What does this fold into?
Amino acid sequence: MADTPRQTALRILTRCRKNGSWSEDAIHAELQKSALDTKDAALCARISMGVLQNTEYLDFYIDTFCTIPVQKLEPKVLDILRLSAYQILFLDKVPPFAAVDEGVKLCKRQANGKAAGLVNAVLRRIAERRENLPEIPGKGTPQYLAVRHSHPLWLVEECAAAHGYDFTEGFLSANNAQAPVFAHENPLRPGDGLTGIPTLLPDCIQLESAAGLAETEAFQQGRFYIQDMAARLAAMVGDAKPEMTVLDACAAPGGKSVASAIMMRNRGRIISCDIHQKKLRLIKENAKRLGILIIETREMDARKPDEDLRGIADLVIADVPCSGLGVIRRKPEIRRKQPEELDRLPGIQRDILSGLAPCVKPGGVLLYSTCTIRKGENEETVQTFLVKHPEFFPEPFGTPVTGPVNTGMVTLWPHIHGTDGFFICKLRKQHD
It folds into this structure.
C-alpha cells in the first residue's frame, strides 16, 4: 500500500528526533522514497515543517488535554499527537475529524496500538476546543512568547531586551511562517524563465513554492537561480564590477559568488573558497549550469588565507559562520541551539576578518555578512575589528529594500523586510 502524507511526515519527524537530521534533508530524503504525488508531498512537507516550527505550542495543548505528562509519552506517540494536533489547529483544509481519525490509525499501525485510545481522546478534546482553546499563561512576558511561538526562552529574552516585546513577537511569528522562494533571472542564459510575484529587485520574482523547480527546463538550462533576497542584497552592496578580482572567502553554497559573477558580466576573476572540499563541488556545478566561467574554487581556512591572496582583491566577501538565527523559518531546528555553543562564534568571526584584511587592496572593500540577528555576532564583531584595523572604515550604501544606510551596516528582518534575517556591513580600506 502506498505511503500517506502523514506516514511520511511521521518518518521525517522520527528521523529529525532520533538522528538530529536537518529538516530540509529529512524532508527531501523521505519524499524521494515515498512516491507521493505533488499535492500530497506538499501536505507532508507542510505538516513536518509545521510541527518542527510549533513544537512547544503543540506540546502545551497536548499536555493540557492529556492525562500523561508530555515528557512521559512514548516518543513516537508524541510525534503522532503533534502532527495530528498541528493539522487540527493550523490547517483549515483538513477537517478536524479526519485529523483525529488518521492520527488514531497511524498510532495503531506505526506506534503502540495500546495508546490509540489515549491519542483519540486527546485529539478529540483539542478538536472540540479548537475555537476556544485555554489561554497560554503570562501574556505580555517572554515566557508567553516562548510557548506561543515555540522559541527558546533565552532567545526571546535576548531579543526582547534589545528590541522590545512587540518587535520580538513580530520576529518570532515570521519565523514560523512559510519561507518565501525568490528566483533571480540569469542574463548570461537568456530565455523564457518563470512567472511569479514581482519584487523590489527588477530581475527577481517571488514564487509560490520551490517544489519541482530543479526538474524544470528553465532551471536545468541555467536561466535562473534561487537565492533569498537578503543574500542577493549583500552581493549588491559589494558592488562587484567587470574585470575585478573578488575573493569569496566562505563561499559555499556559492550564492554570492554567482550574484557577483553576473554583476561582473562574466568578466574578471572570482576565487570561491571554503574549508570543506566537498562543498566546493556544489559551487562548480552551479557555476557550470549558469554559464559562469570566472569562478575558480579553492579549499581554504578563511582565518589563514593563502599567501598568494595578499593584496589582490578589489572585493573580499566574508559571509562568516554564524548562529543562523536569521534563517529559523527555513531551518526550524536552529532554535534548539544553546547559547553556550554560540559563544565561540564571535571569536571565529573576528579571526576571519583579521585574516582576510590583508587580502583587500588599498581602496578595496571588505564585505562582512551573517545570517543572524545577534548584535554580538554583527555590530559588536565589526566594532572590535575596526579598533584593531583602523585602515578600514564603514562606507554608506543603499539598496531598494533598505533605502539609504548611512552607518554602513544594517540588519534585515523577516517581519520588516520580507527577507531572511541577515546582517550586511560594507568596510572600505583606505588608500595607502
In short: Residues 65 and 125 are 7 Å apart (CA to CA). Residues 5-128 form a domain with the N-utilizing Substance Protein B Homolog; Chain A fold (CATH 1.10.940.10).
